[in-house]
Amino acid sequence: MPAMRLEVVFIPVSDDDRAIGFYRDQVGFELDHDFTVSEDLRFIQLTPVDSACSIVIGRGMTDKEPGSSNNVMLVVEDVRAVREELLGKGVTVTEVDVQPWGDFVQFSDPDGNTFTLQQLPKR
Question: What does DSSP assign to residue 7?
């Protein structure tokens, strides 16, 4: 089978500019593109630092309801450090949930789309 790479996840939001502020300024994603193609189409791509996969938000990018994306997983080296950084930027995050398969923290964007941070267990 040929290689397949996951490169983009579409996240439905209700307010493009508020979402940019959240993902770029609070969560720390890089703003790669912001193009208004037409009155009905705005393409906004943001990428987590060192990630090969980006998120896309924007008017006309998905027909999903804002807030309907759940548990997009981001793997981090130190979930406690990332949690503290997000808290310092005003992001509401859960306590660390320790499981045999990793340590987890969750947060939501302003629309209620949820993200899970996972620190993989030491092998």
Answer: -
- Scan for tokens 């439905």, then name that residue: 12
Q: Report the alpha-carbon distance of residue 94 to residue 5 in Å, rounded.
A: 30
Q: In one letter, which amino acid is 114?
A: T
Residue 19: strand, helix, or coil: helix
Mean pLDDT in order along the chain per 10 residues (123 residues): 94 98 98 97 97 97 96 96 98 97 98 98 83
CA distance 45 to 58: 9
CB neighbours of 50 closer than 8 A, spacing ≥ 6?
Answer: none
3-state DSSP assignment of residue 121? coil
- Exposure string of 41-71, with b = 16+ CB inside 10 Å and e = fewer, is ebebbbbbeeeeebbbbbbebbeeebbebee
Tell me, what's the pLDDT at 123?
75
In the sheet that 102-108 helps form, which strands lie side by side, from edge to edge?
72-75, 114-119, 102-108, 97-99
**pLDDT reported for residue 122:** 84
